[in-house]
Structures are given as C-alpha cells and as structure tokens.
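Researcher: If only I could read backbone structure tokens as easily as an amino acid sequence. Walk me, if you will, through where the backbone shape changes along the chain. I have put the entry right below:
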Amino acid sequence: MFAGLDPAVVQETLDSPHAQQFVANDPPDRARNYYQGMVRSTINCRAYLEAYERWRTTGVEPTLPREAQPQNPIPSVDQDLKFDHDTFAKAFSSGDPTQVRAALSAGGSCGEWVPVKPRDYSGPTVSDAVGGPVDAPSS
C-alpha cells in the first residue's frame, strides 16, 4: 500500500495524532485508504509549499510539482487526490502566486493539517507558513 512512497513520511503519518483521530471510527479498509491518501497529501503539500516559497523569493514561476504516486495506488484515493491536483495545477498555471497561497491555506486543504516540519505535530502547518487562510483574488 505504501511501496514507492517516502518511508519517513509514511511513519510520520501513521504516528500523527491528526491522522489517528481522523480514522478513529473507520473500519480498517477505509482507514487504510485514508492513510494512503494522507501520506500522499503530506508529500504533495510540502512540495507545493516548497515551490510556492521558491516562486515568492525568486520571482520565477515554477512548474507544478510531481504528485506522489505509490506503486499500487488505491483507485478511490487517486480519484480524491485528482481534485487536489487539479486545484493546484490551476493555481500554479495562473501566473499568480497568491492563487497557490490560497490553495495551500483554503479550508479543507492539506495546508490546514500538514505540519511544515516533519513530525512537528504541534508546530506550524503549511497554512500557517503561508500566512493563514486568504481569499483567492478574482480573475
């Protein structure tokens, strides 16, 4: 289920109080799906944050970071993460870094719960790192 994903992020996610609470009332098969999704989201979210910060500091528009893909992706997880990927693809292709910031800090986004520093469960989240929730500018 986790083959092909960074083992340190897998363990971080399995140990995460947020992740454990999220799946606490789920049957094992559903929890398994959620865990794969949370590992992939953590990897992706930090990659999006890194690209956003590089864009903000250098002024050079980055390409969309490559999605974390396990060797055996769970189809329902792939479907859920496709929405996230499409959201970030649109934000990165907008030419406006505030669109990426908005995606990283939106309610329900990975930025709400992914800690900036691995295993720093009580430290700042990705959303905190980009300045908290903001509204996307109108196009």
About this structure: Residues 28-58 form the longest helix (31 residues). The chain has a mean pLDDT of 92. The chain has six helices and no strands.
